[in-house]
Amino acid sequence: MKNHGILASYMAGLLIMLTVSLRGQEFNGGVFGGINASEVDGDPYMGFNKLGLSAGVFVNRYIDYDIYWQAEIKYGTRGVYKGPSDNDPTLYRSSYHYVELPLSVHYLYQDKIMVEVGTSPEVLVHVIFADENGIMDPSVYPDNRKLGLSVFAGIGYWLNASTGVGLRYTNSAIPFRDPREWNNPRYRGYFHNVITLSMAYRLKHE
What we know:
There is one protein chain. By secondary structure, the protein is mainly beta. It has one helix at residues 2-21, and strands spanning 27-41, 50-62, 67-82, 92-100, 103-109, 113-131, 134-135, 147-158, 163-172, 191-203. The protein has a single domain (2-203), classed as Porin, CATH 2.40.160.20. The protein is built from 1 helix and 10 strands. The protein starts with a helix and ends with a strand.
C-alpha cells in the first residue's frame, strides 16, 4: 500500500509537470492508447498470444531540429496465454499489470516518420494467474519482482499534426522473476516480450 501511495504521488507530479510544460512554447504533449501482444521468454509457452491494453500520457521537447526526447507515464498489461486445443484441454493465463515510466529519444523525418529508442523503469501493481479451473490462489503465485526495467525501440507515422500511429517492441532488460536454477545457463530468468500497436493524439506547440 505504501508503494502504491508513492507511485500515485509520482504520477500526479508528472501530470502537473505535463500541464505546466504545455503552457510553454518548447514542449509538446498528448495522450496515447493501444493494444499489447506479449509472451514470456523463459517459460515453455511460445507466441505473442496474450492481448492486453496500453494507455498513457507523454511530454517531449526538441533537442535539435529532428531529434527530441520524450517522457511518458503509461499503464499496460502483459503476460502469457495458452488456450486449450484438441490434444490438450488445459488452459494457462497470466496477466501482469504495470505502471511504466518510459524515457526515450526520437528521430523525426520530414515531420512524418518517427524512430525511437529508450528505457522504461516499471512497477508491478497487480498480477493474476488462471487455469482451466479459474483464477488461481494467490498464495501459489511465483515470486515476481515489484520493480523492473525494460528497453524498447519503435517506429511511428504521424498522419497529420495531431494524430499518429506507432509500433513498439519492448523487452525486459533484467529478469522480472529469478531463474529456476541459478547455476544452469539454460535458465537465465524470465523476461517480458511485448509488441504494442498504438495511436497518439498530440497537442502541438511550435
